[in-house]
Amino acid sequence: MQRPVRLAPSILSADFATLGAEVAAIDRAGADWIHVDVMDGHFVPNLTIGPAVIKALRPHSQKPFDVHLMIAPVDPYLAAFADAGADTISVHPESGPHLHRTLQAIKGLGRRAGVVLNPATPIAAVEPVLDLVDLVLVMSVNPGFGGQAFIPAVLPKIAALRRLIDCSGRAIDLEVDGGINRQTIGPVIAAGADAVVAGSASFDGGPAAYAQNLSALRRAADLARPGPDDGSLGW
Ligand code: DX5
Ligand code: ZN
Catalytic site residue 27? Predict the structure, then answer.
């Protein structure tokens, strides 16, 4: 299924001293989703922001908030993130003992549910719960920090998930997160992703550079998009 590529700048790389203005600026520059990385210093070795900050940012953009939870336990906080204005809530299978129950809770809150696969987490972790999932987020770095190098070994996993999602017949977004830049976005899109997170590559150079950063990513993504004839014999 051909879908337009969605760009989701991660505000982890924004200027935290002026986060509201940063969200508005990246929205104006062409972001499709605003990616928000929530870290607890326990599930991942870094601490970021919680629901109160998301709530404060909500009026600064009409774009969907794509909230990536790197916290354990995660269940006690789902309602707070939904109330704060998250549109998609994505969780790691390792962040609780009952992934199916966690996804049911997110759906019960009226939000889109995502499952995040770490580089070492197999596709099998999401397969049994695919009927509850609106988005699969493939980590192409180990979660915890912006600015890390892309791990090319995840490319076959993206391609395999593309096939799995297409076979399911469900409109599940396939998003990739970590080390995405003008060079790495091509292979990721060619492998079948239809959404990408980009932190450093979006926010590099400050607000004056945002529109240029996003259009360069979008151009590179469009060039790499599999054509309708791919895989055919050419007629
Ligand atoms: C890492 C986060 C990413 C990160 C991406 O744990 O999930 O969203 O902000 O940053 P870049 O694009 O700089 O790798
Ligand atoms: Zn993220």
Answer: no
CA 193 – CA 178 distance, rounded (Å): 13
pLDDT digits over 28-50, tens only? 999 999 999 999 999 999 999 99
Q: CA 47 to CA 37: how far, in whole Å?
A: 10
Is pTM beyond 0.85? Reply is yes
Q: What is the pLDDT of residue 114?
A: 99
Q: What is the pLDDT of residues 195-223, one digit of tens each?
A: 999 999 999 999 999 999 999 999 999 99
Distance 197 CA to ligand 2 centre (A): 7
Instruction: Report how far ligand 2's centroid is from the alpha carbon of 54 (Å).
Output: 14
Query: Residue 32 catalytic?
Result: no
Q: Which of 27, 32, 173, 177 is catalytic?
A: 177
What residue segments make up the domains of the chain, in order of their start?
6-224
DSSP 4: P
Residue owning the nearest CA to atom 9 of ligand 1: 146
Superfamily of domain 6-224: Aldolase class I (3.20.20.70)
Helix, strand or coil for residue 221? Answer: helix
- Paired tokens of 225: 């998009």
Q: What is the DSSP letter of 27?
A: H
Q: What single string gives the DSSP state of each residue in 40-56? A: BSSSSS-B---HHHHHH
The pocket around ligand 1, CB under 6 angstroms, is made up of 10, 12-13, 35, 37, 68, 141, 143-144, 146-148, 177-180, 197-201
pLDDT tens per residue, range 61-72: 999 999 999 999
SS3 label, residue 116? strand
Question: In what order do the strands lie in the sheet containing 135-139?
Answer: 6-9, 195-198, 173-177, 135-139, 112-117, 88-91, 65-70, 34-39
